[in-house]
Amino acid sequence: MDRTLVMSSPNVCSNTNGGNLMRRKHSTMANNIYYPTSCVSKASQCHRKTQIECNLLRSQQSILNHHYKCIEGRPTFQECNRKYVVKAAHAIPSFDSESHASSPKNILDPVKKFLVALYWFCNPHSMIGRTLSATSGCLLAVEKLSDISPLFFIGLLQVLVPNFFMDIYVNGVNQLFDLEIDKINKPFLPLVSGNLSITNAVFIVASSAILSFWLSLIIGSWSLIWNVALYFLLWTAYSVNVPLLRWKRSPVLTAMIMFSSWTLIFPITYFLHMQTFVFKRPVVFTRSLIVSMVFYGFYSISLALSKDIPDIEGDTKFGIRSFATRLGKKKVFWICVSLFEVAFGVVLLAGASSSSPLWIKIITGLGSIIPATILWYQTKYVDLSSPDSTRSFYMLNWKLLNVAFLFLPLIR
């Protein structure tokens, strides 16, 4: 009788298709069944009805679980899904982290960091000075405005490119052999701070020297070849720590290298390259070339002396007997100031006594008086006990030299 009630109840198995089929199949049979007693209470019928529905729901849940079983005895769907999510969380990075890692800003950060380190490794103030010096030296060969032609700019480019790579070599090799000293004197440099590795620095230095020599040989100008070769030899001897070299230990040799480079090698080779190789003219030392050489003579010696004032602590510790360590900061400082002023005085006198037009005399006069005045005015703000202050004064002298490069070719 219970079985008959299950099949004839209108609410049972209404949640599944299977229940509907069973109900349709046995509907006729259920209508013909005779119940021998009617004393079953409504409460008992409702209780039995609820119990039957619960049993059916359990069987349906069992069927559903059976459908989600993994094939060949694998864990259930829920377990598989849970394991998959856990493993995926460890193996696959989130979308946010992936987009953050692949953003252009993060990709360019290492490139930007390397370029900044390379910039400071190349010692930019000296490279700017050498570039302006080369331009000024080439302009000394200009006799008339028509000489400022595409031919002139090609010749200037032939000078600048090999010298650019040789500047990288000279500045780089000096930092490689001054690593321990720079930890005291210049801890901001890229090799000391770790922003540039020793391996990368050696590669940059070696490849720059090779490129400089190769380019000068390709160009074929003997003045340019001598410029690169002498610059390489002198400054290698200045920096490299091998027997008979490391000339920076001697203040006399240091001053000699600075004097010969800036006073003789640079202006003469630049001038001759433009005069003989580019313009195809005979060798003639002009008045402007001679005035420039005298100016560079005083200025280069002063630069050589003032360079060692902020580095006196490291130089003393490592046995480098510069003039600053021997004579004292104050005495060397005022010798440097005097030489700088004499250099600008030479330009003032040469410009005033030249046969140039009045407007050129005015430019050369102001070009020497204004830097000399600025230099003298800044001396009272220099703190000789502070390496930062004396280094700032040294950098000021480089800036004033860059100004002089612009008006020296005007003196005729």
TrEMBL record:
Protein name: Prenyltransferase 4
An annotated GO cellular component: chloroplast membrane
InterPro entries: AtHST-like (IPR044502), UbiA_prenyltransferase (IPR000537), UbiA_sf (IPR044878)
Top-level taxon in the UniProt lineage: Eukaryota
Signal peptide extent: none
UniProt record similarity statement: Belongs to the UbiA prenyltransferase family.
Membrane topology annotation: Multi-pass membrane protein
Organism: Glycine max
One Pfam family in the UniProt entry: UbiA
Transmembrane residue ranges: 151-170, 196-217, 224-240, 252-272, 284-305, 332-351, 358-377, 392-411
GO terms assigned for molecular function: prenyltransferase activity
UniProt entry keywords in alphabetical sequence: Chloroplast, Membrane, Plastid, Transferase, Transit peptide, Transmembrane, Transmembrane helix
Subcellular location, record wording: Plastid, Chloroplast membrane
